[in-house]
């Protein structure tokens, strides 16, 4: 009986052990399944994160039209391999999801378009060149727009951004100092019969929230409409410094009111708006700009963006577009001077017209050959800057072990495609512009606008 009890006890222990083994095996199998499911969920979550990261980034251009209409990147025209910029660029690159061990074509395409978005350049729009040609033929039979026809009086107002960001330096001088110098050089050469005015905004208070109301209401005509007087104008230039916020709409409203007594029937009215940033006083300058074009003053509006980012450029372009004016981005004093020089030539023609000396209209036509040459040169060097920066980014992330040798080759192949597009686009646009020699200005303007208008592109 004793032995029977021991045998039964032993069998019980064996059975219990077997049950525990089965339970352990089941638990282990379940744990493995849970781990696998978690892994799949994590991979799915990672894939979704990658996709969402690239959702808002625009595709790399595939045509001349898309190149022209691309937005400048955060590091456009910046030397990305310099000590000043390299660490900042690398910080942005590391925000992108890492390439997988065996990247798909889609992964490469997305990664490259992100790199491209960081350094994409601002290519001059051929439509802007056409508008400048239209302005340049002021007073000739080709000037079919009423506002470009010479009138008995010529009135010019320069509206200058005096917000705090104009303290930023270009080389050894502030943007404000360079702007003042260029404006002084321009207005000091206008015919003495013309009226000139200088209006500033954002020159009071500071950029702090506490000073916003004060700064946003600071719009002042520091030199009233009258012929240029050197002493008085220099005093006006010395009366303000860059300081606060950016009330662009307020400045345009004040300008419109000041121009109200200069009807376009007997006055040619010209406005230059020079700004380095976007409206920061809750205004809608692009919306208000439409009222300028529809008013009795019918001004010629030339907008200059001084070292602006993509957001400011977009708004300033809208202001120019809504007044049927021109927009130009400048980054240094030479480019700023060049924009004002176009007006100098037109004003000289106006003076001759008043003196009945404007007889040879052909001599007053813009020299299209040199304008096209200048355009294509700028296009080439802008494209070269973009390609060099992209090449540097790819090399730098390879040296940082962010990508492999194979990844580097794939990205360089995509860079080569962009470089080929740049060459084709340059030739295409040059050909389009050179057609001006056989076309009337209005016909050419319609053709160029239809092709490069950003509103017609997907």
Number of strands: 8
Unreliable sequence segments: 358-366
Give a short account of the largest sheet: 6 strands, mixed
Determine the number of helices (DSSP H or I, runs of at least 4 residues). Answer: 16
Percentage of residues in DSSP E strands: 5-15%
Oligomer: single chain
Give the total of domains: 2
What is the global morphology? globular
Per CATH, which architecture of the largest domain? 3-Layer(aba) Sandwich
CATH class of the largest domain: Alpha Beta
Terminal residue distance: 95 Å
Mean pLDDT: 84
Helix content: 55-70%
Task: Provide the CATH topology of the largest domain.
Answer: Rossmann fold
In the sheet with the most strands, the strands line up as 5-4-1-6-7-8
Give the helices and strands as they follow along the chain: HHHHHEEEHEHEHHEHEHEHHHHH
Question: Which structural class do the helices and strands define?
Answer: alpha/beta
**What Rg, in angstroms, do the CA atoms define?**
32 Å
Q: Supply the CATH superfamily name of the largest domain.
A: von Willebrand factor, type A domain
In short:
With 458 residues, this protein is an alpha/beta fold.
């Amino acid at each position: 009986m004793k032995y029977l009890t021991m045998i039964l006890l032993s069998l019980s222990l064996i059975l219990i052990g077997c049950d525990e083994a089965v339970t352990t095996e089941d638990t282990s199998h379940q744990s493995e399944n849970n781990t696998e499911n978690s892994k799949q969920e994590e991979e799915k979550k990672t894939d979704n994160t990658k996709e969402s990261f690239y959702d808002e980034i625009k595709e790399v251009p595939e045509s001349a039209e898309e190149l022209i209409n691309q937005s400048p990147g955060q590091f456009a025209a910046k030397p990305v391999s310099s000590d000043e910029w390299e660490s900042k660029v690398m910080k942005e690159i590391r925000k992108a999801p890492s390439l997988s061990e065996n990247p798909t074509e889609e992964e490469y395409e997305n990664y490259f378009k992100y790199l491209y978005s960081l350094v994409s350049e601002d290519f001059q729009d051929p439509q802007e060149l056409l508008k400048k040609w239209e302005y340049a033929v002021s007073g000739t039979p080709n000037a079919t727009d009423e506002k470009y026809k010479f009138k008995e009086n010529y009135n010019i107002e320069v509206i200058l951004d005096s917000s705090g960001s104009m303290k930023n330096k270009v080389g050894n001088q502030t943007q404000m100092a360079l702007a003042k110098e260029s404006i002084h050089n321009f207005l000091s050469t206008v015919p003495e019969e013309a009226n000139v005015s200088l209006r500033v905004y954002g020159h009071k208070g500071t950029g702090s929230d506490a000073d916003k109301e004060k700064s946003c209401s600071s719009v002042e005509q520091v030199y009233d409409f009258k012929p240029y007087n050197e002493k008085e104008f220099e005093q006006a230039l010395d009366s303000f410094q860059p300081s606060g916020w950016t009330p662009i709409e307020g400045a345009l409203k004040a300008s419109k009111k000041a121009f109200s007594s200069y009807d376009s029937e007997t006055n040619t009215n010209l406005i230059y708006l020079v700004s380095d940033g976007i409206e920061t006083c809750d205004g809608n300058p692009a919306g208000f700009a439409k009222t300028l074009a529809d008013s009795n003053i019918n001004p010629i509006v030339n907008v200059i963006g001084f070292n602006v980012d993509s957001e400011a450029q977009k708004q300033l372009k809208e202001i120019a577009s809504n007044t049927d004016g021109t927009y130009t981005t400048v980054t240094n004093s030479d480019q700023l001077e060049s924009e004002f020089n176009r007006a100098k030539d037109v004003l000289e023609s106006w003076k001759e017209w008043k003196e009945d000396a404007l007889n040879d209209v052909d001599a007053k036509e813009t020299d299209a050959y040199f304008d096209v040459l200048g355009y294509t040169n700028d296009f080439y060097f802008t494209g070269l800057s973009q390609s060099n920066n992209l090449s540097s980014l790819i090399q730098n992330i390879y040296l940082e072990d962010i990508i492999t040798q194979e990844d580097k080759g794939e990205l360089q192949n995509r860079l080569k495609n962009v470089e080929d597009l740049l060459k084709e686009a340059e030739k295409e646009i040059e050909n389009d512009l050179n057609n001006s020699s056989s076309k009337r200005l209005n016909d050419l303007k319609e053709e160029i606008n239809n092709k490069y208008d950003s509103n017609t592109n997907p």
